[in-house]
């Protein structure tokens, strides 16, 4: 166990990490609210976290380009996350201290997904692990984390949210300290010329792609920040809220498990249109009702609004010229999944305080705008959908 196989190391580390993430993403806004933080400030703090992760992934993560440095970097990042998550308890309701620990935590947290994915991809490219099977344990752990913390918080109070997240990071810390039997080692470097991020941002086709995916994924901002608060105010206990979040991840996992069968032959345009329609229906329903049967349908649509959009984005990147793929992946994670969601979280915090659940109509309108944007990469032959790796749950 101290020197596990690459598959065991990756899958077990992802289990510990995503258990903690399954606590953090659905319930952190509830913990902020329990400390007496206003809805506007909750949105600002949650948005600040996403913005910090964006900066970390643009400025810090790319510096760790040699595979030998992945394991030490993951160890330091996991240790820092463990310390900074605990510091939230000392911050209490002090908004300045909460902002400080939010920044420190997300500077450490941001690189963990791309670094662990890089480890998995290193081994997958050498045929020593199946990325999909290893990544699946992260999705299972996210479900476990959100379900467990929902029960604990409803029974013992909101501070269990921090304690449960801390337990997940302690587990991750123990797991990351082990060294796989085949530690990652670089092969002779090859100088593949890549376009700069600046040059890509001057490409109108790339900008259209980023705007389209930002509208679809950015529509989840109010959901990430305020759905738990909204549902709790409607009378649903934390345990039910945890199960609802878990159901969203289950729909995502099922969608990716059967994506090859269900979406074979679908065009990029079709995938984006279906996802955009899902955005309109999902957030329109969210704004209209808090009835439990409707919430089940709303959460099952997560596979459509997040999962199908992710499939389409990855397909777009894989169809692009080979020398652009890494840079496009970086922009995809940093802007639509980072900076834009951060902005929309701040906006939705203000909007939720002003209009309550009607803010979700604004999220639904983003799906309407997305229907009018068409993207098509210039280049490589279409890749089979079976090559798509599973995404990070609910981001």
Automatic annotation (TrEMBL):
<feature type="transmembrane region" description="Helical">
    <location>
        <begin position="355"/>
        <end position="373"/>
    </location>
</feature>
<keyword id="KW-0812">Transmembrane</keyword>
<feature type="transmembrane region" description="Helical">
    <location>
        <begin position="160"/>
        <end position="177"/>
    </location>
</feature>
<feature type="transmembrane region" description="Helical">
    <location>
        <begin position="43"/>
        <end position="61"/>
    </location>
</feature>
<feature type="domain" description="Major facilitator superfamily associated">
    <location>
        <begin position="10"/>
        <end position="361"/>
    </location>
</feature>
<keyword id="KW-0472">Membrane</keyword>
<protein>
    <submittedName>
        <fullName>3-phenylpropionate MFS transporter</fullName>
    </submittedName>
</protein>
<keyword id="KW-0997">Cell inner membrane</keyword>
<dbReference type="InterPro" id="IPR024989">
    <property type="entry name" value="MFS_assoc_dom"/>
</dbReference>
<feature type="transmembrane region" description="Helical">
    <location>
        <begin position="206"/>
        <end position="226"/>
    </location>
</feature>
<dbReference type="GO" id="GO:0030395">
    <property type="term" value="F:lactose binding"/>
</dbReference>
<feature type="transmembrane region" description="Helical">
    <location>
        <begin position="326"/>
        <end position="349"/>
    </location>
</feature>
<feature type="transmembrane region" description="Helical">
    <location>
        <begin position="241"/>
        <end position="259"/>
    </location>
</feature>
<keyword id="KW-1133">Transmembrane helix</keyword>
<feature type="transmembrane region" description="Helical">
    <location>
        <begin position="291"/>
        <end position="314"/>
    </location>
</feature>
<dbReference type="InterPro" id="IPR026032">
    <property type="entry name" value="HcaT-like"/>
</dbReference>
<feature type="transmembrane region" description="Helical">
    <location>
        <begin position="12"/>
        <end position="31"/>
    </location>
</feature>
<dbReference type="InterPro" id="IPR036259">
    <property type="entry name" value="MFS_trans_sf"/>
</dbReference>
<keyword id="KW-1003">Cell membrane</keyword>
<feature type="transmembrane region" description="Helical">
    <location>
        <begin position="266"/>
        <end position="285"/>
    </location>
</feature>
<dbReference type="GO" id="GO:0005886">
    <property type="term" value="C:plasma membrane"/>
</dbReference>
<dbReference type="Pfam" id="PF12832">
    <property type="entry name" value="MFS_1_like"/>
</dbReference>
<keyword id="KW-0813">Transport</keyword>
<dbReference type="GO" id="GO:0015528">
    <property type="term" value="F:lactose:proton symporter activity"/>
</dbReference>
